[in-house]
Write a structure and sequence with these properties.
The longest helix has 17 residues. About 35% of the residues lie in helices and about 10% in strands. Helix 18 crosses helix 20. The strands form five sheets. It has a five-stranded parallel beta sheet. It has about 525 residues and is α/β, with parallel strands linked by helices.
Length: about 525
């Protein structure tokens, strides 16, 4: 007999049904395990049985495969799994919260501004679900009753998305992504093979040249207005180019040519800015510093920071704001010179001709070339860049070419710090290291700033995690970054765990799952879970 689909002829005791769903809800919230004692203590709130009877039922249910138990060496027992029996009892649904009733009609009074009379008016007007309300227009709702004012209608439309099933948002997002891959002729989805060197045209001209401005005109350059500079913007001297639609320029998610790696936008449609930390030694905002280094021409920059701290996003954001091409190459131990600059290939007439690689094409186009994890690639590939870093010219020996890059070309390399956590990261030799302007990108130190950044990224179309809970999650993440013995939650990890929350997991369960996902084999999670209890 399947434990997940019990035989309806078997008259299971009601307490066992309640227990199975209580455990299911607690496991979903706690993620991983629940002490047996916690369940036996709480079950009396929902059904009339005592602690010992509940423990006996769980042990008997374990023998039937309903519960999965883990008995510790010190006599403690935890429940690590359950197959809920039958439909969830109303007493559990009411206690933990649940979806709409079986008829599919939503309880609109779950919204604070909706009274019984307004809920009736909404249903009479044809609104049956929270999705209907989320898609409504203010003018459609205002005036349905005397008390349903325009401001109250706006509040309803803003609150309704929180109650829309996540499947609705996922289905709509999937439709948008699929639409970008639909062939205009056949109307059907299709695959595409993109040559990373397809974009052979140069980036746009500096705006001051094409629009007749002075080179130092404020409107012709990137003004650092994020992070610490939000209230007092700083001109950086990094010129804005005049061709935002160049294929290599990073696009906003709302752009018709945006790809899957497009930059996210906030509720107003603006690209979400990165959370910009202060460079710990130079004590200036990193975004401002990086822009000023890029403004100096072909001055190579080295960004050093832990995983998920936003190194690439910061570069991509600056490229978006200045209409500069962004070409990113992930380096590894197998990266050869020809992977960067291109191999020699036979032509149709039997001759041998050079084929441009992504790095060489970026230099020709005038894009910002980003080499990720630069120190781990082969020494020969790194050495081939030395002349470019010293003299601004690239000698491609295999091609027999001396390349003078486009004047808008810039070079940025990224790497993790060579610490215990990143023991696979190789330190750069002193000859190479001295050729770069080095900047450190730590995790965001200010809780409020990281909360604001996360809120803009994860709560764009609808609220996934409320601001108060986001703050607690960020505070806990900062704890993990201060303890070398704990797995570290990066800003990227926080966006992933918010995704788990959107899928239906509790915030605490999502944090636990992400901690488990990033933990190394020699790291123990029990201490981190105990600390997590202080936050969630």
């Amino acid at each position: 007999m399947s434990t997940s689909d019990p035989d309806p002829d078997v008259d299971r005791p009601e307490p066992l049904l309640v227990l199975s769903h209580l455990v299911h809800r607690l496991l979903k919230r706690e993620r991983g395990s629940v002490p047996l004692e916690r369940v036996t203590f709480r079950v009396s709130d929902y059904v009339d049985i005592g602690d010992q009877e509940a423990a006996d039922l769980i042990n008997a249910g374990a023998a039937e495969g309903i519960f999965s138990l883990d008995r510790g060496s010190r006599g403690s027992t935890t429940i690590v799994g359950v197959s809920p029996q039958g439909p969830e009892p109303a007493v559990i649904t009411e206690a933990f919260g649940g979806p709409a009733d079986a008829t599919g009609t939503a309880d609109f009074q779950a919204l604070e501004v909706v009274t019984e009379s307004i809920a009736t008016a909404l249903r009479d007007a044809g609104y049956a679900t929270f999705t209907d309300l989320a898609d409504a227009d203010v003018n459609d709702l205002a005036g349905l009753t005397g008390t349903l004012t325009e401001s109250r209608a706006e509040a309803i439309i803003q609150a309704a998305p929180r109650h829309v099933p996540v499947g609705v948002w996922l289905a709509r997002s999937a439709d948008v992504r699929y639409g970008r891959r639909v062939d205009a002729t056949t109307g059907r989805g299709t695959a595409r093979i993109l040559d990373i060197t397809t974009a052979t045209e140069p980036v746009g001209e500096p705006r001051y040249r094409s629009e007749g401005l002075e080179p130092d005109a404020v409107e012709a350059q990137y003004v650092s207005d994020i992070g610490r500079n939000e209230q007092d913007p700083v001109p950086t001297g990094l010129h804005v180019l005049d061709e935002p639609d160049h294929p290599d320029v990073p696009k906003a998610a709302t752009h018709p040519e945006a790809g899957d790696d497009a930059l996210p936008v906030d509720v107003s449609g603006e690209v979400v800015p990165p959370a910009v930390p202060t460079e710990p030694r130079l004590q200036l905002p990193l975004g401002e510093l990086l822009a000023k280094k890029l403004a100096r021409g072909l001055v190579p920059v080295r960004l050093v920071g832990p995983r998920g701290s936003g190194k690439n996003y910061l570069v991509k954001y600056l490229c978006h704001r200045t209409n500069r091409g962004y070409v990113s190459v992930d380096c590894d131990e197998a990266t050869h010179t020809e992977d960067l600059f291109g191999p020699l290939t036979p032509t149709e007439d039997g001759l041998i001709a050079p084929r441009n690689g992504p790095a060489k094409q970026a230099l020709l186009n005038g894009s910002v070339l980003v080499l990720n994890e630069f120190p781990v690639m082969r020494a020969g590939a790194a050495m081939s860049l030395h002349r470019l870093l010293n003299e601004g010219k690239l000698l491609v020996k295999a091609h027999g070419e001396l390349v003078e890059p486009h004047p808008s070309t810039r070079i940025v390399i990224t790497m993790n710090p060579p610490t215990r956590e990143y023991r696979d990261s190789e330190p750069m030799n002193s000859a190479t290291r001295g050729r770069f302007r080095a900047l450190k990108q730590p995790y965001i130190q200010d809780v409020d700033e990281e909360v604001a950044t996360l809120d803009a990224q994860v709560n764009t179309s609808h609220e996934v995690v409320d601001r108060g809970t986001l703050r607690k999650i960020v505070q806990f993440a900062h704890q993990t970054r201060q303890n070398e013995n704990w797995p570290t939650l990066s800003t990227r990890n926080l966006t992933i765990l918010c995704e788990h929350v959107e899928d239906g997991a509790s915030p605490k369960a999502a944090v636990k799952n992400e901690m488990w996902a990033v933990a190394e084999p020699n790291q123990y999670l029990d201490d981190t879970y105990e600390t997590l209890n202080d936050y969630l």
